[in-house]
Design brief:
The protein is mainly beta. The chain has one domain: Porin, CATH 2.40.160.20. It has one helix and nine strands; from the N terminus they run H-E-E-E-E-E-E-E-E-E. Strands 1-3-4-5-6-7-8-9 form an eight-stranded antiparallel barrel. The longest helix has 12 residues. This is Porin family protein. Keywords: Signal. InterPro entries: Beta-barrel_OMP, OMP/PagP_B-barrel.
């Protein structure tokens, strides 16, 4: 009897059909490997502000397949961040790397029912991250060229879900997102060697706690 009940609980938790979702996200963006930037070769690399924490949101549309699996398309809102770094010989002339990011992902979820209301899930996603990079050094008149890159992003996560009604499910979860590498264009200003040989580079990741709701229709 228990064996025949388990599939019924799983089906009740993830019925077959489409749904829309919205999420509030507490995100911590991290700029990694900034020391790989093309630098003027004078002094040693000095790290500055390498992370930004903020609240953002995401919206999505998905399909529950009725067997514990869900697939979903998700758009995460555009975010503008600034990360800083410098050289030990130019203490007051930090690079300010301005990065605009947004992403469009295809996510897969596997739900594991605990009872007829609660379940836990694991998730994985792959998609595209658009990263726009530019910025300045020392003061805003000393600009770097701006570049835009669209590349692969991926994520892994876990969480818990509860059925709030026949049509609405509330999720609380965590995920790690890798949005790839971005770099600015070359310096447009004259540097200490009179060369156009500097650009800013970083690898962007995000650690995210999210609270969301799914509405079936």
């Amino acid at each position: 009897m228990a064996a025949c009940c388990l599939p019924q609980l799983a089906n009740a938790e993830t019925p077959n059909g489409y749904y829309a979702t919205a999420r509030i996200i507490d995100a911590d963006h991290r700029a990694n490997n900034m020391d790989a930037s093309a630098r003027p070769g004078i002094g040693r690399f000095v790290a500055g502000d390498e992370h930004q924490r903020f609240v953002t949101g995401a919206i999505g549309f998905g399909h529950a397949h009725g067997n514990g699996w869900r697939t979903e398309g998700e758009y995460t809102l555009r975010r503008n961040d600034t990360y800083t770094s410098g050289s030990s010989l130019f203490a007051t002339s930090f690079n300010n790397h301005e990065v605009s990011s947004q992403r469009l992902m295809l996510n897969a979820y596997r739900d594991f029912a605990i009872n007829d209301a609660w379940s836990v899930y694991g998730s994985a996603g792959a998609g595209l991250a658009q990263l726009k990079s530019g910025g300045w050094q020392g003061n805003t008149s000393r600009r770097y060229d701006t570049t835009t890159r669209t590349g692969l992003a991926w994520s892994v996560g876990t969480g818990v879900s509860v059925a709030a009604s026949d049509r609405m499910t509330v999720d609380l979860g965590y995920r790690y997102v890798d949005m790839g590498t971005t770099e600015s264009g070359w310096n447009t200003f004259g540097n200490a060697r009179g060369l156009q040989d500097e650009k800013m580079r970083l690898d962007l990741t995000s650690s995210e706690f999210h609270l969301g709701a799914r509405l079936a229709f």
